[in-house]
Give the backbone structure.
Amino acid sequence: MAEYAIELKGITKRFPGVVANNNISFSVEKGEIHALAGENGAGKSTLMNILFGLLVPDEGEIVINGKVEKFSSPRDSNAAGIGMVHQHFMLIPKMSVMENVIIGQEPGSSLKIDRQKGIEEVQAISDRYELNLDVTKRVGDLSVPEQQRVEILKVLYRQADILIFDEPTAVLPPHLIDEFCDILLSLKQKGKTIIFISHKLAEVMKVSDHVTVIRRGEVIGTKAICDTSIDDITRMMVGHSVDTGRKARSDIRPGKEVLTIKDLHYTNIEGNEKLKGLDLTVHEGEIVGIAGVDGNGQEEMEKCILGLFKPDSGEILFEGRNVNDLNVRQRRDMGLGYVAEDRQKESLVLQYSVAYNLVLGQEERPEYSKKGFWLKRNAIQETAERLAKDYDIRLANVNVAAGTLSGGNQQKIVIAREANADPSLYVAIQPTRGLDIGAADSVQDTLIRLRDENKAVLLISMELDEVLAVSDRIAVIFDGRIVAVVDAATADKESIGYLMLGSRKGGEK
Amino acid sequence: MTSNKKREILQELLIPVIAVVLSLLIGGIIIALLGFNPFDAYGALIQGSMGSLVSFTMTLKTSVPLILAGLAVAVAFKSSAFNIGVEGQLMFGGLCAGLVGIYVPLPPGLHLVVTLLAGMLGGALVAFFPAILNTACNVSVVISTIMLNYVVQFFVQFCVMGPFHGDTSAPATDPLLASATLPNILPARYQLNLGFIIMILAVVLVYIFMNKTTKGYQLTAVGLNATASEFSGMSVKKNIFMALLLSGAIAGLAGSIEVTGTLKRMVNGFSTGYGFSGIPIALMARNNPFAIILTGFFFGMMRSGSFLMQATVGVSSDMVGIIQGLVVVFICLENLIRYYMNRIK
């Protein structure tokens, strides 16, 4: 029998209204690379945070190297030899690699850091694991992949034997992913155990020994890589459910084009091309759902539509008119409703009253202001009271601060405000994220109602089930392009799943 | 629920009061350590600032530039910009008002209005540079406003001592034309001039601007959540730019009232830290215009009462500087005060 580095037994973690991890059990052999795959929100991060000591499970036990452990902080998991390489680096740019690595465990006396010893030790680790870093360089001068290697170095310096990588390739440009895979293999060769979280299945197939698939907080299965295929894993990730819970709606009356995106290109500050010629059309009276794994260009597309990002090339047409040179306010005044992804950060002023939030962005329109200067406070109050009633926003009165409401009611403010502005195009990004079923349902009903009122609706969601339930057409985004557009009524979840993960149905092993 | 709310509001109001009490307490200990009776000292402070109608109006007059400086800081702060250049804006505003008051003869009434407007324009001009640097090149407002204070200070000194130096041995210009000075609103010995009314008007106008207009709505929204404001289509930079200009204009008004009302000529270095005092005045009042009247008056009391304290008890008038410094420290420790208040409950 193989020796296990990690055994998870019946781990359950509940958050208010949701079970993030439900009775999760699997084991990781010593010295293997074990991939953890699952859609966004499947519960991977919760599980890893439990293993890392950031969260305490409600039930279940963690066994490390045959010993039952209870972690209440990352300090405990460190002591047990577990280290985590975070997706978002936690480095101090102004300090050298060596200084970043030794922070918290500086060699030397408590008064003076022994820098020479630090440099020697850290350089030795870098050389031993072939990380190719000059430890005297400033971290701020390093490239992104090099910074990632500094994060690995930090974990190794703390003598971790079990390394958790949280979506490590998400930050890397494609041509450097092979190099990263080599590092993983070299770590394994030196006897480290690795948990590798990813939903890029090509990499999973390339480096892992086993893969465990999680869906909706439950383990679907663990397979040896030699016994499985990309298709097989995809099927496990998205599930076979026949009933997509499609929302009822009236027959589609295809109208004129409201949003037309032609050959859109966008390169971010880091120089990665995130949109590589994206084409998309949304007509009035239809909901187009964007299906895709996080980070394939959704955010860049959204912000180009809103006007916060300027595309490198390509066109965005709004009711036939090119809006490339218009700012956010002008686009909104043309009839763009926009439900941003992060309601607290991007959609609401939490200290403002609910009433004020219900007109945010529309405050200069004649309904709410005299000559664009004097606020019509009575009109704002009346509108707010009407919207609170129509959209079932539960509150004592509309003058309480928006920050005092629950997440679902906060989201209803945003949904109501953007719908009330009489948009011709309604863009909703992850509109039901974190909401309970009741609130999520009412948000989705609003989208359907807008469509029935002949508006064009664009829904961007990481949850395939939601896209399937709400959309009329589904556009699959992968690697900065729309790779397929299918009719939602006849779409099958599995084949969309393949497209989302960049493989074609029935693809080779 | 509502009684909870009420308690919360009460607690928030109590925090600045506690900060003041703690500062007076520690200030008293320092006075005692210096060998004076703190009760005598504080008694003289109150006597000197509010003991008679004359001293009370004197305190009111001293408070006017302080309140306006606090208002200037608050307006910028609402948009999240920290304008530490109020001192320089105030001095330059005073200079501009002074020059128009001396060299631009106009009919009575009109002359005063133009003089005050010139002062406001001058203050806004000084604020314009940090504002445009922030908008165009993302330069930190804190740093550019602080540094500009020195540039302005020496430029004003050059103007007053050089080309515009008056027929006097003092570091000052010639007196303003009578038509450019603020008339008294009480009998002469009370010294209170029209500047007081203008200050009240400014406070009310700022309150109305902040709470009743779309521009004030946007400015506050930008200060509270820049990202959401941007997503809703507001320009964050434009709002900060506007707030800084407005802040500079109010600072300029403070300087012009001092020049046209109290000094009646432009005096080099006439501002003894009014602009800097504006920062704790605004902080203590949580940027609420009406509360700024109270906190500004408190700082005015310290200033006007300190002379009697020095004359009768012998405690240096610089002691009030120490107490004001302590107030700033305790205001900044508001979270600590809140923490202990919650523990007591």
Q: What stands out?
A: The radius of gyration of chain A is 25 Å. Residues 344-422 of chain A form one domain. The interface with chain B takes residues 306, 308, 327-333, 338, 340, 345-352, 356, 360-361, 363-364, 369, 372-375, 377, 396 of chain A (CB under 8 Å). DSSP finds 17 helices and 22 strands in chain A.
